[in-house]
Each structure stands twice: as C-alpha cells, then as structure tokens.
C-alpha cells in the first residue's frame, strides 16, 4: 500500500470510528419551535463535548453579544484548524490535518512527514489574531463583550483525543480576552477519558455502560459527578439549586430543524430533528422576569440521534438540573454526511461532528457559517420578542 493511501485510511478510521448506526428513538412527534415567554435574553449560554465543545466555543466567540458564557469539554480555541503552517498553505486538506494533528492530535502519528510541519499545540496568539481580524471584518461580534462572561472547561487525564495543552490554550485565550480569572474554571479529572462525565447512567442504551476511564459509544462516562451540573452551576451561579429534579419525558419536545437551514445542501450536515427540554416552571406564558434561562448543548462526534438515539439529549445529565433551575435546554443535532466519490471521507463529515474545521464551507467559524446561522435562528425563535 502506498504511504499516502495508508495515511488516508488511518485518517478515515479517525473520522468514522467503524460504528453501525442505531435506529432513532420514538420521540419524533415534531412540534413547531416557538417562543418561550419566560426566557431572559440576557442569560443565554452554550456548552459541548469534543466537536460540540469546539463548536460551542466557536459560537460563543462569534455571537458574544448574545452568549453570556460557555462550558467546553475537550474543545479548543477559536479557529484552531485555521492555524495552518506555510508548508501546508496550498494543501486542500490543510485544515483537516491541523484539526487531527494539532488541535486534537487524534491521528498525528498517521500523518507521516507532514507531522514535522505541524506545531505541537495550538497557538493562543494566532487564535487572538484571527478573532480580531474577523471582528474588524464584521464577521463576528466585538470580543470586548466577553469580559464579563463565565467559562467552564474540562478535560480528562485519560483523554487521548484532545490533549491537555489544547484546553490550556483555550483557557489562556479566554484570559487574554479579558475574562476574570475567577470566572474561568478549569476542571481536570485524573481518571476521565474522552466523554461527558455523568453521575450514573440511569436510562436505556444499546451500548456498554462506561466507567470513567473507558472510551467508546455513547461517550457518557460514569465518573461519580455530573459535568452538566458543574458547568451549569458555574454559568448560572445565582441561586442554583443544590439538588436535581426528575425530568419529565413529555417536556422534551422534538422539532423540525430543516426550517433553519437549506435541507437540499448536504454540506450543512444537520439532522432533520432537533430537541428542546422545557422545564415545568418555564412553560406557558410566564413573563420573562421570572428568569428562565436558555442553554444550548452540542453533542460530540458519533453522538447524533441517528447513531445513539436519546443517549445524549436525555442521559447526559442536563435535564435534571435544568428542571430544578429554570433552564430551557436546546439540543441541536448534527448528522453524518459522506461524499460519494471521496473514499477517504476527509472532505465530508462521516462521524456526524459539528463543523469546526470547514467541511460545510470556508466561513464555518463566522456568523455566516451554515451551522452557525441555523443555531442562531433556533435561539432567536425561542427567545421572546
């Protein structure tokens, strides 16, 4: 086998993971996504794991006038995949190589000689430079909006997908943009692998129940604590209830996502159905002064609905804490997309990741990005006029 072919195959393995798709769960009685009168537009936050972590941060930076804080699990700094060294400037897969070899280091060893041209870790200075340039070009909000925001970061010591250095770069990036050090919390668990830490898995799943140090579908790892609690408690510190409540299944609403993007464009790589959890205290026509908040949770690669069913949006721990603390949780859904004539999968999205390296278009990290626009429109629909 030629070396270039071997590299392509290895990278494809990193992208696909070789897992069979799981049928979708039965929660598909779609309702219109409508405004929730009790939501406070000043208390919108985001979070995510892996590709969802990169995307949540990306959305936070691009829409900093809207978003008041972010929780990032195993993600990295803004436009990380755009940190392309000059030797790879004309390589059409350069952003993919940087994503896999620098930002995540997931398959750096498979890159062969190209790895020598890649930096060891993401550059805070380059991310800051892109941030300022994009703001000056009118592509993202003023980063000065971030100064009073709150951020929660997490990575496990056993995470071999996203290294500690990437999260450290993300922390330093936020601090360089003026966030108070006390507002940026960095949790680093000595046992955790790549996944969302949960107290315990209490739902049903087609996959193994994972311990904290284990890796695999559905990327929910039993670590005796809820990452959802820690990040929501940090993002919403005022009056956060100490104990969770039992979430009610009928408060999880399925809605048609195709209203928010061009369903004829496969590059958008978003699913037909999204979900929103609306706690009892936030339902109906209650006025905004009652203080319900909106949180957007982005799943990671291979955590989309068609593959793992409801494991992420029902079992990742968000809904119990949301029910207890008047937090509406929006769960947008990415999905897998493959090109018919791309045997490597490197120009598409076979793992159903959120776009943080450019498969949907070169403006993926700007407000004009296809997925960025779709999620912003969902948020605007939910917020009261």
Q: What is the CA–CA distance across the termini?
A: 60 Å
Stretches with pLDDT under 50, minimum 5 residues: 1-26
Total strand count, please? Answer: 11
The SSE string, one letter per element, is HEHEHHEHEEEEHEEEHHHEH
Question: Mean of the pLDDT scores?
Answer: 89
Shape: globular
Strand adjacency order, main sheet: 4-3-2-1-10-11-9-8
Main β-sheet description: 8 strands, mixed
Structural class: alpha/beta
Helix content: 25-40%
Radius of gyration: 19 Å
Oligomer: single chain
* Count of runs of 4 or more consecutive helical residues: 10
Q: Supply the number of structural domains.
A: 1
Strand content: 15-25%
Structural features, described:
By secondary structure, this protein is α/β, with parallel strands linked by helices. It has one domain (36-79, 146-382). It is 26% helix and 16% strand. It contains 10 helices and 11 strands. It has helices at 3-16, 51-62, 94-103, 124-136, 164-176, 227-235, 305-308, 311-315, 318-324, 370-382, and strands spanning 39-49, 67-73, 150-156, 184-189, 196-198, 210-211, 220-222, 252-256, 273-277, 292-298, 327-331. The chain has an 8-stranded mixed beta sheet, sandwiched between helices. A 3-stranded parallel beta sheet has the order 5-7-6. It is globular, with a radius of gyration of 19 Å.
């Amino acid at each position: 086998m030629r070396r270039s072919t071997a590299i392509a195959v290895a990278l494809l393995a990193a992208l696909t993971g070789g897992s069979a798709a799981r049928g979708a769960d039965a929660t598909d009685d779609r309702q219109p996504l409508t405004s929730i009168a009790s939501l406070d537009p000043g208390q919108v936050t985001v979070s995510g794991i892996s590709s969802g972590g990169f995307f949540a941060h990306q959305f936070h930076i691009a829409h900093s006038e809207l978003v008041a804080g972010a929780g990032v699990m195993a993600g990295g700094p803004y436009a990380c995949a755009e940190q392309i060294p000059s030797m790879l400037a004309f390589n059409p897969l350069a952003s993919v190589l940087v994503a896999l070899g620098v930002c995540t280091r997931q398959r750096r060893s498979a890159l062969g000689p190209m790895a020598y041209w890649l930096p060891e870790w993401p550059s805070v200075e380059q991310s800051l430079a892109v941030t300022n340039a994009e703001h000056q070009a009118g592509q993202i909000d003023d980063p000065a909006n971030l100064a009073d925001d709150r951020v929660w970061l997490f990575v496990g010591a056993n995470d071999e997908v996203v290294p500690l250095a990437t999260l450290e770069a993300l922390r330093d990036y936020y601090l360089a943009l003026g966030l108070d050090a006390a507002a940026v919390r960095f949790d680093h668990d000595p046992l955790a692998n790549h996944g969302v830490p949960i107290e315990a898995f209490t739902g049903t799943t087609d996959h193994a129940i994972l311990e904290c140090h284990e890796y695999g579908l559905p990327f929910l790892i039993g670590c005796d604590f809820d990452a959802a609690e820690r990040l929501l408690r940090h993002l919403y510190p005022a009056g956060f209830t100490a104990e969770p409540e039992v979430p009610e299944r009928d408060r999880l609403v399925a809605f048609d996502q195709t209203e928010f993007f061009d369903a004829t464009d496969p590059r958008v790589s978003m699913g037909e159905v999204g979900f929103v959890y609306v706690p009892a205290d936030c339902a109906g026509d209650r006025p905004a002064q009652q203080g319900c908040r909106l949180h957007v949770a982005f799943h990671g690669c291979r955590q989309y609905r068609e593959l793992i069913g409801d494991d992420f949006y029902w079992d990742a721990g968000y809904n119990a804490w949301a029910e207890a603390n008047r937090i509406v949780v929006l769960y947008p859904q990415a999905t897998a997309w493959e090109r018919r004539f791309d045997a490597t999968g490197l120009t598409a999205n076979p793992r159903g990741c959120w776009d943080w390296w450019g498969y949907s278009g070169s403006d993926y990290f700007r407000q004009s990005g296809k997925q960025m626009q779709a999620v912003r429109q969902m948020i605007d629909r939910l917020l009261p006029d």
